[in-house]
What we know:
26% of the residues lie in helices and 27% in strands. It has 16 helices and 31 strands. Helix 1 (2-12) packs antiparallel against helix 4 (62-74), helix 2 packs across helix 3 and helix 4 crosses helix 5 (84-93). The protein is globular and about 95 Å long. The N and C termini lie far apart (80 Å).
Amino acid sequence: xxxxxxxxxxxxxxxxxxxxxxxxxxxxxxxxxxxxxxxxxxxxxxxxxxxxxxxxxxxxxxxxxxxxxxxxxxxxxxxxxxxxxxxxxxxxxxxxxxxxxxxxxxxxxxxxxxxxxxxxxxxxxxxxxxxxxxxxxxxxxxxxxxxxxxxxxxxxxxxxxxxxxxxxxxxxxxxxxxxxxxxxxxxxxxxxxxxxxxxxxxxxxxxxxxxxxxxxxxxxxxxxxxxxxxxxxxxxxxxxxxxxxxxxxxxxxxxxxxxxxxxxxxxxxxxxxxxxxxxxxxxxxxxxxxxxxxxxxxxxxxxxxxxxxxxxxxxxxxxxxxxxxxxxxxxxxxxxxxxxxxxxxxxxxxxxxxxxxxxxxxxxxxxxxxxxxxxxxxxxxxxxxxxxxxxxxxxxxxxxxxxxxxxxxxxxxxxxxxxxxxxxxxxxxxxxxxxxxxxxxxxxxxxxxxxxxxxxxxxxxxxxxxxxxxxxxxxxxxxxxxxxxxxxxxxxxxxxxxxxxxxxxxxxxxxxxxxxxxxxxxxxxxxxxxxxxxxxxxxxxxxxxxxxxxxxxxxxxxxxxxxxxxxxxxxxxxx
Length: 575
């Protein structure tokens, strides 16, 4: 109220006791209002006793000072893309914390691949630790998108070295880093060619292949003409040989040239059963290092055939059962603080439940309450901590699987209590209606489905006789299913997630024992491959975790990986 009254008096030119002057523009003000705004004005007015005294403010534009004065009176900031940097620089000079924070938030909200480097460099001039960290993380996480930008070419060699040397740099493969170096050098070749060895030493060439190094790296004219670069390439090929023969169970070394990056996303597996029975363990699978670790944040009690969802930094464990008890309870783990919290329970107990996330809501579909199979469905709103029933599915479905594609939820297969299902249906949240699709090629319960590249993939499961390895994809445009290459092994009740254009199948049951190996699928080649890491689990649930600040806590420490000593190794040509 006080600020509003004084601002009206200022605008009317009443009771003003000082004038701020910039260039030839004068701003009548009330000293008491500006005095509260900043230590700069406190020092400026400290010894002033004359009413109407004129104060010259150097190095400030009139339009910027007008905004600062309005902020002092109203507490609001009028910032735009055109004035925000100059406003923030001036606020920094005048030590106006409120404007600095408002500008930081404005700039941070508009960060993108084309401006993030400039924003990060701008914080060298105008300090804001929050904005600097946000720009830095953005560059690290979106490096592939940043490299084509004009601002990328303005990095100094020291700055570029820092970025490409970070374990957290998010790239699909190291060829992207090598190509980025070549682009940066080509911008000013005479000045930058001298830095090729320093930059190449930060590329994890030991994580590429012998063929890539021989055909793409060594023939490059900058590498070929530099003895240090040729040595880096040779050492990298030695490390590749070492990991394939001496250390066959590792996908990386502690050495910089073969040190795996920290993934931008990892796969979290919760609960289920291992060879010792039901468990409350939580495992994190690092797809880059191909390594699984047990994390300390165990569930309070065992859960199997439950659902898991990642939303807003929390991992939700939903429903399931243990020792013949079926749950409607829901707990969530804050991965940043490693704390558990129980949230609102579902309307129904749901074991064998299907769970997914759409538009900020968690959906729980079907399942079993221990007596009956269900066709009911409900969704959870984190903001209100409430579950709301939605339209029921057409069919009873337990041990089914669901996923999201183009704003709709698809659920496939399952068990009615009497019949195994090959049917599928989808839910439209805008109409609150379910629609049947054409059926799959075979009945499946204990299957898993994922959405990728405009298709729904149905993988594995149990048809009542055999545990399946076959895979098929649904095309919504034609309402048809297409058979694809089968998995490496038959399995049901496993975990399936997509990370960086690859499908990861973990655990499951083959009818005799719990499966330990991980199968990986490339949808572009329609080929499956087996990974080295092993995770022994079945009837578990999983989700993909990304974007948390403490990502490194959930992957294997890169410093714990084996070290490769070049002095003790055979020369590459003799390997």
